[in-house]
Amino acid sequence: MKRYLKIITLGTLAIASQSAWAQQNFDSVEIEVLPVRDGIYMLVGEGGNITVQTGPDGVLLVDTQYAELGEKILAKITELSPIPIRYIVNTHSHPDHVGGNAVLAPRGSTITGGNVARLQEDAGEGAQVIAFESVLNNMVAEDYPVESWPSETFFVDRKDMYFNGEGIEVLHQPNAHTDGDVIVWFRKSDVVSTGDVFTTTMYPFIDQSKGGSINGVIAALNTILDITIPRAKQEGGTLVIPGHGRLADEADVVEYRDMVTIIRDRIKSLRDGGMSLEEVKAAAPTRDYDSRYGRTEGFWTTEMFIEAVYDGVQAN
User: Fold this and answer.
1) Beta-sheet strand order (sheet of 191-193)
2) pLDDT of 231-258, one tens digit each?
3) In the CATH scheme, what architecture does the domain 2-312 have?
4) CA-CA distance, 316 to 194, in Å (whole number)?
5) How far apart are CA 302 and CA 203, in angstroms?
6) Among 263, 181, 170, which residue's Cα sits nearest to residue 214?
7) Could you read off the pLDDT of 48-90 as tens digits, one per residue?
8) For the whole model, what pTM was predicted?
9) In which element (H, E) is residue 291 found?
10) CA distance 316 to 309
């Protein structure tokens, strides 16, 4: 999210910025691997976190970062498993989460079995790329490369999968960060991959140009809390892989959900009281959280967040 949004204006998010991505220097980016649990790993580089599930059936990815990092990501995956990538699930359509599809999907295989050679050369049929239908619509409208498009879409609230010995639920979150967000729940491993409906690094980025809304973000955070369980003293238990930031657990999501809800309610109260947007900004409704989540520059500032929330609440 960070790189591509710096080079285009908020609201356009046009894929024409691909040429600008290519000018970014990805040479120094290292892909770090964090073991999470039971054959599940978190890959951290530049852009959204990647979730990797490995096992006897092959490799499943949640998101793929940027195309320019595809070969580096593939090299890390081959260290984790000699079996091809079979599935890629995209949590939404932003380039820092789907750009690598074009590199990684063709190097995978929809056929069970294989070896490292199948990862190192085009396997022909490629891995299956799964996303909510609006993700494909957005990517087509913004001229993403065809090779990066989802090959299977769904339009219902939940898609079920069974892979590497565990049930996986792909849960659509309407009008949250975007109109196509999903969270991915690995039920046996007790790991949830959230995409950008939850991060540990900043206020929620609400992409209104793609149907995002503050109430949808809060609903998505509550969905995460519905399926996460702490182990002891509200720590540990279900592990949560955010769209950006560090590995988390339920307590982290509770804190984030409460913060977003409090700010939403403050801004709604101020707007209901007749305050204009500029007056709400002057009232600093985020001030007690700004030291942790606020930003005064970059692609998504605190002021932009307040503006999006103000737009998303209705005055009485």
Assistant:
1) 158-163, 166-172, 182-186, 191-193, 239-241, 248-249
2) 988 888 999 999 999 999 999 999 999 9
3) 4-Layer Sandwich (3.60)
4) 33
5) 7
6) 263
7) 999 999 999 999 999 999 999 999 999 999 999 999 999 999 9
8) 0.89
9) helix 290-293
10) 15
Distance in angstroms (rounded) separating the CA atoms of residues 266 and 214: 13
Q: Which amino acid is at 310?
A: Y
Tokens 């932009």 correspond to 304
Residue 141 tokens, joined: 């409208």
Q: Where are the domains of the chain?
A: 2-312
Phi-psi group of 83: left, alpha or beta (phi > 0 → left; psi -120 to 50 → alpha; rest → beta): beta
Token duo for residue 113: 């079995």
Query: Hey, which residues does 193 pair with through a beta bridge?
Result: 184, 241
Neighbours of 92 (CB within 10 A): 28
- The SS3 assignment for 57 reads coil
Tens digits of per-residue pLDDT, 41-52?
Answer: 999 999 999 999
Q: How many CB atoms lie within 10 A of CB 227?
A: 16
Give the number of C-alpha atoms closer than 13 A to the C-alpha of residue 298, restricted to the C-beta side. Answer: 14
Give me the residue label for tokens 């279900």: 238
Adjacent-strand bridge partners of 58: 55
Residues in a beta bridge with 89: 62, 130
